[in-house]
DNA sequence: AAAAAAATTATACTACTGGTATAAAAATCA
DNA sequence: TGATTTTTATACCAGTAGTATAATTTTTTT
């Protein structure tokens, strides 16, 4: 993305934090970021689209920071989860993301509302998978309930805690307290077997492509990484690394992946690697074919 | 209030429910309720003031319905509490009050924001007193925490439950589930002695006059009722009933209670009643004097 | 360095908003 | 009936989001 465009988004974000979204006029953004109206409408077709660009960046930043903490760690460790939530909460606070989302949810713009909805569901889905890590498969019927209630408890605690302590906010305290509560609630509902939401609701809410894309991304990543590390032949290493990178990039990042090119490259590679990495090659083949079948 | 004015508020409420507050222009309200702009601004100085008038009515309706359920009942009965919350939730749903409040909280209108804040704190205060009834004095250090979390849990459960079940919303199920959770949380925090909010925060948040007014209202009511029923002298009954009603009305409903008038009437009465209702007369005297000291 | 292309600016414009002002008409009251 | 209040219709103001366009500046290509 253009540097100037990014700068405009940053300046607008600053204004949204200070005055709120509604109260910030486009003229304010123009003055504050020193661009003309024409340029603004060259970058964004509306104030709402600027907002979406901002939200995408904030979400991305959040996911990044959050996932960084988990790599190579024990997923069932509650402390890791607490750290992740702390990071999330701190970023929310810094970016005033929650009040921005709440405000903007009433903008009557379908795209924005959908975007926020998907964002919240993704958080729910993340919590669901993390709770599954932490509490184990046997608690599954109650995990969606607890994920939902956790967002509510954390949100309300943070809201009133902020109101009570103005600037000296001990995020860790609020997060730990809220996590303690949900741990206890999980025990409680598992024992009394009370259930409010059917577990399959989450899958029903989240459009398939969102889920599928994520799963696909992880699968292709795993398979290609395995294949890369399996190449012993140093003579051909450069060639096949290039091939694998090409396939990965084409499938994950290209707007219209070139089917025949990908399949051709794959078949070239299959000839040589098939005997040594049978399992992974097969997995990759399945991934590629199902990918093109879908689209 | 004028019937026509009430009608305008109703029509506006209808529009707010359908389109939201921001999205409803004053012109919409004029067209929908069939009045002219001049009349509108004769009734309300702005759209925001119309909103405040609406919110006042809705809050009043809610308090009424809620308190009706408690009279003559056992305050520690959890079932009564559940009924009260159900009524509250049903009215919220019917009036779309929650989303209206959330939307309007970003209106940058100080008065509205303050009004909503006070409203929420009053709900919290109500929950606090009800939890005190139900869970007992010994749980007091944790009652504010639980009141806060209860609002969060109920809110989030209702939100996702509505999303999942569209129109077939079983309010009772959501309320009962949420109440079960808070009962368990209360046990949990009382046992682990974890506390997030200091109990005195609520008193600190709610401006004194709000609390004091309520307390004062109840005290004066109690004292005067006791005095009324204590009058045995049928000859003087009419006279003293008139006196007591006057004092009560003057202190509770007059904009500027006439101090000397009230004190004079009270002293007239004191002469005759002092021996028979010593205690109550004294209590009333204290109430009157502290009342005028304050203002 | 020159030419072409793209980005940016300033400005004027439309249609709408909330809110003000006012004179005429209608309803209410004494 | 006559006076007073309420209501209406209308024109008006300043501010909003967004469009259109011609002129200018910057970047890219040759």
Describe the structure.
Chains A, B: Residues 2-62 form the HTH tetR-type domain. Chains A, B: Residues 25-44 bind DNA. The structure is a homodimer of 295-residue chains. Chain A has three domains: 1-44, Homeodomain-like (Arc Repressor Mutant, subunit A, Orthogonal Bundle); 50-203; 208-294. In chain A, helix 4 (47-68) runs antiparallel to helix 5, helix 5 (78-95) packs across helix 9 (171-192) and helix 12 (234-253) runs antiparallel to helix 13. The mean pLDDT of chain A is 86. Chain A is globular and about 65 Å long. Chain A is mainly α. The longest helix of chain A is centred in the middle third of the chain and has 26 residues, at 110-135. In chain A, 79% of the residues lie in helices and 0% in strands. Chain A contains 14 helices and no strands. The two termini of chain A are 27 Å apart. Chain A has helices at 3-19, 26-33, 37-43, 47-68, 78-95, 97-104, 110-135, 140-165, 171-192, 201-205, 208-230, 234-253, 259-273, 278-294. The interface between A and B is large, with 39 and 39 residues. The structure holds a DNA duplex (30 and 30 nucleotides).
